[in-house]
Write a structure and sequence with these properties.
This protein is an all-alpha fold and 76 residues long. The protein has a domain at 26-75. Helix content is 84%, strand content 0%. It is built from 3 helices and no strands. The chain has helices at residues 9-24, 26-44, 47-75.
């Protein structure tokens, strides 16, 4: 019997994910993603996706600006 704590949580999750992928395939993930998306749309409405899309866009925009500032400082 393997000793307790021989596998990290991360390793166990990765192992489980690989097993699920091997057992069910890509289509399984497509189906559960679609089901989750539809449930979210029913629960929160389509406007929710607009809001989170804007937040994601703002985050990316902020990260790009930060990277540009860091690059400009590095060049000085």
């Amino acid at each position: 019997m393997p000793e307790k704590g021989a596998m990290t949580v991360s390793q166990a999750g990765r192992k489980g994910g690989r097993k699920t992928k091997a057992t069910h395939g890509h289509e399984f993930y497509v189906a559960i993603g679609r089901e989750g998306g539809n449930t979210t749309k029913v629960r929160y409405g389509p406007e929710f996706y607009e809001q989170i899309g804007r937040k994601g866009g703002n985050k990316v925009r902020a990260l790009v600006a930060q990277a540009k500032r860091a690059e400009a400082q590095r060049r000085r």
